[in-house]
Amino acid sequence: MSQLGPTFTFQKRETRHPGLDGARGLAVLAMVVGHTLDALLSPAVRAHPWIQTYWTFRGITAPLFLLVSGWAVVAALGSRPTAARDTYGKRLRRALLLIFLGYLVHWPGWSAVRHMGWTEKMLTTVLTFDALQCIGFALLFGATLLALAPARWGRGLVLVAVVVALPLVSSTMWSLGEGLPGPLRQFIGSGGTSRFPFFPWASYFFAGALAAHVLNVLRPGWTQGLALAVLGGGLIWFMRGQPADWGPASAWLVAYRVGQGLLVLGLVNLLPQRVSGTLAPLGRLSLWIYVLHLPIVYGWASYSGMSSRIGPTLGLPAALSIGVGLLLGCALVARIGSWLRDQARPWRTGSTTLEASVGSLGSRGG
Fold first, then answer.
1. How far apart (Å, rounded) are the C-alpha atoms in residues 8 and 165?
2. Distance from C-alpha of 73 to C-alpha of 83, rounded to nearest angstrom
3. Which residues contact 63 (CB under 8 A, 6 or more apart)?
4. Are 120 and 158 within 8 A, CB to CB?
5. Cβ(139)–Cβ(198) under 8 Å?
6. Contact assessment for residue 74 and residue 213, using Cβ atoms and an 8 Å cutoff
7. Would you state the pLDDT for residue 18?
8. CA 259 to the chain's CA centroid
9. What is the 3-state secondary structure (H, E, C) of the chain?
10. What's the CA gap between 109 and 106, in Å, rounded?
11. In the beta sheet, which residues pair with residue 2?
């Protein structure tokens, strides 16, 4: 009996870094709870010394989020020389999605737009530049550079050049941006018009990308975790020996925060998997948790958020409970949305490889 038959097996491809989702989950947890506390805590509670200490440590949240985003982009490229060009379309679509969502969550509503008219104030309000836009433009810029760079040596050289240049030119770019239209000033950072301007905040994204490129020869987990912890701790130690500059466009501050971010990422890698695994689901849903929680906390269009409806009036237990509940609620909605998307597009579910082998023509006894 003859048989000619193709056999197909689908195998789940484990491309996700074991510590990345945990670190991203930790960052989004701190971000949602931090935003909630910032919006709801009463002035008396906010003035407490250990709450002030918490605000100081909270400063690492956004840099860590950007750093991990940059790491994930380069880690996904692997060692294949043409990977940056082959995946450019996917990166471009992802960047445009981030930019769109970033502007969407700051939409002031049609009534506000009509009231302001076609003015620079209206454009500046509609095109408020925030963290998602910073990641989106960094991804767009980085993906383009990596796709154009020579395959063998260009990736590392480009990343080193960008990581060094961005923090150093930020103050100059801020000065040059004075007098430009409001949306461009926000993008550049001139006059402190944005909390997350491209200069210097994109530095964290590219620092994470460079770390992934340098450490990709090490095995994920303990090996990379130790290297990241040593590298991050060493960078913090070195920068503490330099004159401190806490200015928003400071290259010193960027390097110091990068050291903190690498140290946190290293420590998450060193945690037992059952611990980091509890944070990983939040990390995988981090984009949608971020997008969902902002309108609830701060409002959207003509709808008021908790910051104006409730805050700032609450004590720590009540505000913390609301923050945790908001995090879990947004995670549940994001998970349901992800499940519905997977049902609608089953061929896109997960990351798979298709292995096809065609059996040779032969005879079987019978």
1. 48
2. 11
3. 204, 257, 258, 260, 261
4. no
5. no
6. yes
7. 62
8. 17
9. CECCCEEEEEEECCCCCCCHHHHHHHHHHHHHHHHHHHHHECHHHHCCHHHHHHHHHHCCHHHHHHHHHHHHHHHCCCCCCCHHHHCHHHHHHHHHHHHHHHHHCCCCCHHHHHHHCCCHHHHHHHCCCCHHHHHHHHHHHHHHHHHHCCCCCHHHHHHHHHHHHHHHHHHHHHHHCCCCCHHHHHHHCHHHCCCCCHHHHHHHHHHHHHHHHHHCCCCCCHHHHHHHHHHHHHHHHHHHCCCCCCCCCCHHHHHHHHHHHHHHHHHHHHCCHHHHHHHHHHHHCHHHHHHHHHHHHHCECCECCHHHHCCCCECHHHHHHHHHHHHHHHHHHHHHHHHHHHHHCHHHCCCEEEEEEECCCCECCC
10. 9
11. 363
Quote the pLDDT of residue 81.
81
Among candidate residues 365, 253, 346, 361, the one with its CA nearest the CA of residue 10? 346
**Measured in Å, how far apart are the chain's first and last C-alpha atoms?**
7
How big is the chain by its Cα radius of gyration, in Å? 23
What whole-number distance in Å separates Cα of residue 2 and Cα of residue 88?
A: 45
| Dihedral sign, Cα of residue 254, residue 143, residue 105, residue 180 | positive
For position 16, what pLDDT does the model report?
A: 58
CA triple 47-51-54, angle to 5 deg? 140
Q: What is the DSSP pairing of strand 352-358 with strand 6-12?
A: antiparallel
Q: Residue 193 and residue 184: Cα distance in Å, rounded?
A: 10
For residue 91 the two structure tokens come to 């990166």
CB atoms within 10 A of CB 300: 16
Name the amino acid, one letter, at 360: S
- Segments of the chain with pLDDT less than 70: 1-18, 346-366
What is the distance between the alpha carbons of residues 267 and 245, in angstroms, rounded to a whole number? 26
Q: Which two tokens stand for residue 125?
A: 């309000």
pLDDT of residue 348: 57
Do residues 238 and 100 make contact, with C-beta atoms less than 8 angstroms apart?
Answer: no
